[in-house]
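Inverse folding, one chain.
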């Protein structure tokens, strides 16, 4: 072949390689959400991370759970698009993420500020007012509209994402973790101004969540009482410190400290406002502190929503890996920007609405809260469901109940019981070789994404 042709061929091959690489890159983008939601229009935005080829014929849209962010899906999404080349994964934040200021976390990860300076900026100043400058949370009195950021807002936002994903005739599978899985089932059952939600979907992926008894339910009296409380304080205060945003800040701080200064003395352990149940009984490293706070053996029993099975605290205060989630993967999940894995301002109305939606009927509580659950009996879709130890079997019972109610094809249902080996966050963080979610959802996705 003449030299000129060789050069042209080489350039063409390089261009194709670069194009393929670019198409499979992780892309951060923003999609406009529901423009009629309560609150200022500046919050009508949803940050999305896209994984895999833009030429994929199927998009798996994933919604995070309570207090979660799109970063929850980063590690497993990378594995999914590698193992299922015809698939693209879109991980979606809620609009409430726009209330966060993560700039100093990003600076710490980039090495522009020290991990200790990062911690002081976000949390240290609460106990030591001499620390300046520091994070200034938004005035809660101006955020009362978030009391109406419930299931309707979440579903209308997700619908905007699904519409983008469906462009050019692509198929869409909707899924999520924990409450995000409940959102997927609710979407399939929802009435969008006369259009059934299930008509937008080609399947649902339920990662340790769902409806039909997977979690709690709420009757009319409970709905009225809980909504009155939400109107006074719209955000979840998981640690009970009166500072709803501090849960996300402490989680991300611990992860960044474990990444940037893993064997240094624990900064969190020395923080006077960290609840004592999160503090190791011996002087710990930053890595040991993170593991102690999240591991199912040592994390407070009532906080099963944040737990993994990662190993144990060593006699020297450092972490010793074991079980299914390596500590490094936990740190990478919670210590990342711009797609973080926590939600500082989680709207509690969403939990109330999901509880009221659990029966998938338009009962008195659902009507009071404006839940349009009209199409559950027609929502026949392929279903994948995995449960961990969190709900004592309720997740798979709920998934099977939905399949029966919706007349979904039993042959396309996959039920996975990982309760003996995994806690609630493990499907998102466990090493691929030990991750029951990855091991089982990949063959299910390959089967249901085939051309029919």
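Residues assigned per position:
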């Amino acid at each position: 072949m003449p030299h000129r042709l060789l050069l042209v061929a080489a350039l063409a091959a390089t261009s194709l390689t670069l194009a393929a690489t670019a198409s499979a890159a992780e892309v951060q983008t923003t999609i406009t959400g529901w423009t009629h939601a309560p609150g200022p229009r500046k919050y009508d935005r949803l940050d999305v991370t896209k994984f895999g080829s833009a030429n994929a014929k199927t998009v798996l849209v994933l919604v995070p759970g309570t207090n979660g962010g799109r970063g929850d899906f980063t590690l497993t999404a990378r594995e999914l698009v590698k193992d299922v080349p015809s698939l693209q994964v879109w991980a979606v934040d809620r609009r409430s993420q726009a209330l966060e200021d993560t700039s100093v976390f990003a600076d710490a990860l980039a090495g522009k500020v020290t991990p200790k300076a990062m911690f002081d900026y976000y949390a240290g100043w609460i106990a030591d007012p001499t620390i300046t400058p520091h994070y200034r949370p938004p005035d809660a009195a101006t955020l009362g509209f978030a009391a109406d950021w419930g299931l309707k807002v979440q579903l209308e936002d997700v619908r905007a994402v699904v519409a983008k994903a469906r462009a050019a005739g692509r198929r869409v599978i909707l899924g999520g973790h924990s409450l995000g899985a409940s959102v997927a089932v609710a979407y399939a059952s929802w009435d969008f101004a006369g259009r059934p939600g299930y008509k937008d979907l080609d399947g649902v992926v339920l990662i340790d969540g769902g409806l039909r008894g997977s979690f709690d339910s709420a009757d009319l009296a409970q709905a009225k009482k809980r909504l009155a409380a939400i109107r006074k304080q719209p955000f979840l205060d998981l640690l009970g410190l009166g500072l709803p945003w501090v849960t996300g800040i402490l989680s991300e701080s611990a992860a960044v400290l474990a990444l940037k200064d893993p064997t240094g003395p624990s900064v969190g352990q020395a923080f006077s406002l960290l609840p004592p149940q999160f503090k190791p009984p011996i002087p710990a490293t930053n890595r040991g502190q993170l593991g102690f706070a999240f591991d199912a053996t040592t994390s407070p029993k009532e906080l099963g929503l944040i737990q993994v099975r990662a190993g144990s605290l060593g006699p020297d205060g450092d972490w010793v890996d074991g079980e299914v989630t390596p500590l490094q993967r936990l740190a990478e999940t919670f210590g990342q920007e711009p797609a973080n894995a926590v939600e500082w301002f989680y709207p509690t109305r969403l939990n109330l609405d999901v509880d009221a939606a659990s029966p998938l009927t338009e009962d008195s509580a659902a009507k009071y809260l404006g839940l349009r659950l009209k199409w559950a009996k027609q929502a026949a879709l392929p279903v994948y469901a995995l449960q961990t130890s969190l709900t004592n079997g309720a997740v798979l019972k709920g998934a099977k109940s939905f399949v029966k109610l919706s007349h979904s094809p039993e042959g396309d249902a996959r039920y996975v019981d990982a309760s003996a080996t995994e806690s609630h966050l493990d499907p998102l963080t466990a090493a691929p070789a030990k991750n029951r979610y990855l091991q089982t959802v990949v063959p299910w996705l390959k089967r249901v994404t085939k051309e029919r």
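The chain has two domains: 26-94+149-236+346-452, 100-146+238-341. Confidence is low (pLDDT under 50) at residues 1-23.
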